[in-house]
Amino acid sequence: ILPGRFYALLGENGCGKSTLMRMLVGIEAPDMGEVVLRGYPVGQAPVEARNMLAYVSESLNFEIKADMLGVAHILAQLYPGWDWELFHRIVKERKFPIKKHFRECSRGQKMQFCLAVGLCQGARVLLLDEITSVLDVYARTYFMAHLSDFVKKGGTVLMATNIIHEVQ
Known about the structure:
By secondary structure, this protein is an alpha/beta fold. The chain has helices at residues 17-24, 47-50, 68-78, 84-93, 107-120, 137-152, 164-167, and strands spanning 6-10, 36-37, 40-41, 53-57, 125-129, 156-161.
């Protein structure tokens, strides 16, 4: 996977797209073989190498007892490359309810928050697992523009989907 590219992982339901994504970030272990990140098995890679990856999935859930802004502050401490300027711009432009608790938000709002986190954490590779199906057309267009900018700046996107028009 080369820098500055947008890749699509297209396949039907159940073919292993999400499983591959979870293996790439070390959430799930492969049945055989290994996933290597910067020369290390993914689960043993140094934090700096793991912070190069951002994983966004509609199955992500934050069980932190804080509002969305509080969650962002906690995550910013974990990622030295956190971009507060971009985060606040996304919040303002999308009129995001950052004072709401994550569990109180709609699926679409949760996904937008997760995408904002992925874009703001300073990763070089975004792994996006079936993210657009819960976004309205405005949010989808908005975040696709941000992903395009991310790629133009040398970032890499790997997006798994089964919706062919999204790949186009």
